[in-house]
Amino acid sequence: MKAMLLSLAILGAQLTVAVADNLPRIRVEALCKARSAADKMMDIPESESIADCIQDEKTAKEKLNALWATTAGSVRARCKSDAIALGTLSYLDLLTCLQMADDVKWPSWRRQR
Fold it and tell me: Which portions of the chain are predicted below pLDDT 70?
């Protein structure tokens, strides 16, 4: 029951508006509050403060703004789709997904040559 409520809280807090191929708009404050509430509901220590969560998301969004347009549309779509399916859509998750896709495409040992 708690897991279902957690999923609903996170999904409901992440209301996004996808505009064509633009970076999704994520309600960061609502997302971070939902994560904090989920931690409390599950009776576990808060993984990070709401303020730290918001700052992490803002930093990730800044990095994503530079990376988003240069990433293939298929990769962007997959990352958004995967995050939505898992109920974890956040700028940090999208950034990580894009970076991992780039690492798979260009492994670090090949970049150093």
Answer: 1-20, 103-113
Q: What are the domain boundaries of the chain?
A: 2-107
Cβ atoms of 24 and 83 closer than 8 Å: no
Other CB atoms within 10 A of residue 68 CB:
18
- Position 15 scores a pLDDT of 41
- Tokens standing for 26? 């994520």
Is residue 22 classed as helix, strand or coil in its secondary structure? coil
pLDDT at 101: 86
Q: How many CA atoms lie within 13 A of 50 on its CB side?
A: 13
3-class DSSP assignment, residue 26: strand
The type of residue at 22 is N
Which candidate, 92, 113, 105, 112, places its Cα nearest to that of 32?
92
pTM for the full model?
A: 0.70
